[in-house]
Sequence to fold (160 residues):
Amino acid sequence: MIGYHGEFLTDTRGTGIMNRIFDRYGPYKGPIQGRRNGVLISMETGKAVTYALWNLEERGTIMIDGGEPVYVGMIIGENSRGQDLEVNPLKAKKLTNIRAAGKDEAVVLTTPRRLSLEQALAYIDDDELVEVTPKAIRLRKRYLDPHERKREARKSETAG
Fold:
């Protein structure tokens, strides 16, 4: 039942009540289908910049706030497309000495999607891990280095 609770709440718009009871064992139905979307993966280490996250919002749902520490291989959001995408959450706005005619609008981020431990466990794919610390629950790729990730993906494709 891991993973279905969130889908159930979405389907019932939070009004459903779910009760669980064991009925019986059944025949194997095959692998459980995971999520259809890819993830946004940090390609830099440092503190996330609000301006960069604001630009990344058009690519998917962001799971962190500006100023949070990130590292290479950390999952910072869900891609709106099916494949994983490496992004730079540290990219700051270019500054010039010339003043613009209109003032820069204050960057306002959409509230990040925070996952509970159960939601994080249901969310991850086979090549991802959940990091639990006293202050945070983070998602990351099993292999932090992008070249190692590609090498392992190729190995699993040829083996499977």
User: Anything to note?
Assistant: The first strand starts at residue 39 and ends at 42. The mean pLDDT is 86.
